[in-house]
Amino acid sequence: MFPFNEPTPTAFYLFLYLATLVLHVLPMNYVLAGSTYLAGLSAWEAALGRRLAAQAPIASTLRDWMPFALSVAITAGVAPLLFIQILYKEPFYTANLLLFHRWMAILPVLIAAFYLLYLQKSKRLTEDRPWLRMLLSVGVLACFAFVAWSWTENHLLSTRGQAAWTEQYASGGWFYGDPELPPRLTLWYVGAFPTLAAIVAWQLAVSRPSEEAEADAAARRSLARLALSALTAAAIAAAVYGFSLPEDVRTGVFRRASAYLALGGIGAAAQVYGWATVLKRGGPPAGAPLAAISFGVLAATTGVTVAREARRLAAIDITAFYESHAQASGVGGLAVFVLFFAVNAALIAGVVVLVRRGQKRHASGSGA
Questions:
Q1: What pLDDT, in 10s, does the model give residues 61-87?
Q2: What residues have CB less than 8 Å from 264, skipping those under 6 apart?
Q3: N or C: less crowded end of the chain, CB within 10 Å?
Q4: Distance CA 295, CA 299 (A)
Q5: CA distances from 231 to 21, 175, 271 (A)
């Protein structure tokens, strides 16, 4: 099974790249879909001139957690970014250089988004200013949409080879148009919403008191409808994208990643079952439904992520990089890595312990 049909060094880096990319995709989906949800809701509420009570638990949860989620998404994106430089050094750096100004703009755009998220979170600033809340939410969405578009554009350019690179350099353009970009970006975009719904369901189930959770039935139904609609849209987008690929490319993707495409389909089916159960019962998505949804999100994300890499391998001859992978695997530093891994793990565990102690002291003080 992919990627274990490659030489050991290449398979090692492919596995680490894909595993860490899945960890990045989950919070990335939360941020992208969450910003879209808040922008749409804020615009609707500003137009109506009132708050939508059924959406309030979801909106407040997203506004509180989005800055943290962006931090997690950026931090989790470091590891796959490092591994991709080892795996595809020449095409990756070539695309970066050809789209240099646009590529470098990602950093200030993310910084701007980070500050906008905190402004959006401020109740004192936005509580009685629905139009300001809408403008902030739309600004956040615009930032994340730019980053998603830029990453997709860069990725496609990196796979197109010398002829496309020469043409892009000669044109001096800041943009790279590709017919594969719209269906590919659409698939990833609509596929972000089921992940968002699953994570918010966990947040509502864990962080809100039971008496409030009972009052959140409308919010749970909204999450279920959002997830089921997005899963349907993602299935359509996947079919459109798949059939838009050249036949030889489509065959190569299925040959490399058929098991993972099946895993993605199983994950989607598990999510449909879980959310349909939530919609039917109207109760908290606990027990079997939430377990099915959680498994489905992880399975679908893994399947789609591997299929994404199979599409890249259908365009790039990875055998040309076998030697560089072998050289990279022979570089020392494992002891240093293990040391810092242990130190950081201990620090994180210490922070968790301190926070839990503080919560217990706060709870006992409130009870007194």
A1: 999 999 999 999 999 999 999 999 999
A2: 299, 300, 302, 303, 304, 307
A3: C
A4: 6
A5: 21, 31, 8
